Amino acid sequence: MDYRKLRSFLALADTLHFARAAAAVNLTQPALSQHIQALEQQWGVKLFARDKRKVSLTREGALLLGEVQQTVQRVEHLQNTIKQVAAGRRGMLRIGYVGTSMLESALVKIIRAFRRDFPQIALQPVEYSVNQQLSLLESGDLDIGILRGPLPERRQISRQILHQTSLCVVLADDHPLAQQACVSLADLVAEPLILQEDPEGIGLGGAVLNLYAAARQIPASVLRARDVATAVDLAALGLGVTFIPHAPERFLRQDVALLPLAQQDVTTALYLCWKTGAANPEIRRFAGYAQSHFGDEPAA
Q1: Are the C-beta atoms of 257 and 218 separated by less than 8 Å?
Q2: Which of 49, 52, 133, 255 lies most in the core, judged by the most C-beta atoms within 10 Å?
């Protein structure tokens, strides 16, 4: 399977525009079209619906998109591994992280400090969803996972709390509640709730739904977003409210308000996870380093 053709498929799926997709992968538009046609012929399915006005993914194209993304990521990982080996670097850690972890400074501080103190160990951080990380950890295709709790109990995955911080509410800056010093869940019960597409009971979405359940509150409706950035965008549009870990407002859009919850004990935990018994000695080194320098609680 031609890696270049797969990248062309992903570029067109992302832009839904032949000219922009061709530019993204440094091809001419006819060459990109040939790549897409070759894939459709090889796979026996139509990937895109095209007319004079727009391009859209077909049902088959949408179903294959996730698999192609993972395949391309693995090829790119292999390419990076080959470069590291050729350069004589022996240590390497493949680190997955959820998007919300970058709203906190803890992970950035750990990776910076570890790279400074262990320059011989190559770090390869890649953003993955909760489900992707759990699967990649279990298969051995990921060394370290940075995940937002709550997490499912899995004997084959070890974990430790990396950092805990308070949960905050994000809403449009022209929302009637935007000028308040803080809000309670009772204030929000009539608002549509915007949640990331985390598995049920897991991750930030699970933490927020658990919060509502503990307070015996039910949101007016639930709107799903693919990631934290999209959730904040939808809140800015006034389509509902969303929750994120406490973060400096400079990290967010200027047209949203970030408010603390009146319940002072509402926190969200960031976990460092790895496959139990994994052979890579650098995993324990990284976990121990993170715990001794930045961890909030002992390993579980």
Answers
A1: no
A2: 133
Q: Do domains 80-161+276-294 and 163-268 have the same CATH topology?
A: yes
Q: How would residue 298 be classed by pLDDT, with cut points 50, 70 and 90?
A: very low
Residue 79: which residues within 8 A CB-CB, separation 6 or more? none
Q: Where are the alpha helices (DSSP H) in the chain?
A: 3-15, 18-24, 29-43, 59-86, 105-117, 130-139, 185-188, 203-214, 228-236, 281-294
**Whole-angstrom Cα distance, residue 136 to residue 286?**
18
Q: Which residues contact 70 (CB under 8 A, 6 or more apart)?
A: 132
| Range 3-73 classified under CATH 3.40.250.10 | no
Kindly report, residue by residue over 15-40, the tens digit of the pLDDT.
999 999 999 999 999 999 999 999 99
* The dihedral sign for the CA sequence 177, 180, 181, 183: negative
Q: Which two tokens stand for residue 57?
A: 């993914």
What is the CATH superfamily name and number for domain 80-161+276-294?
A: Periplasmic binding protein-like II (3.40.190.10)
- Tell me the CATH architecture of domain 163-268: 3-Layer(aba) Sandwich (3.40)
- CB count in 10 Å sphere of residue 227: 15
Helix (H, G, I), strand (E, B) or coil at 73: helix
Q: Report the mean per-residue pLDDT for the chain.
A: 88
Contacts of 177 (CB under 8 A, 6+ apart): 171, 183, 187, 188, 257, 259
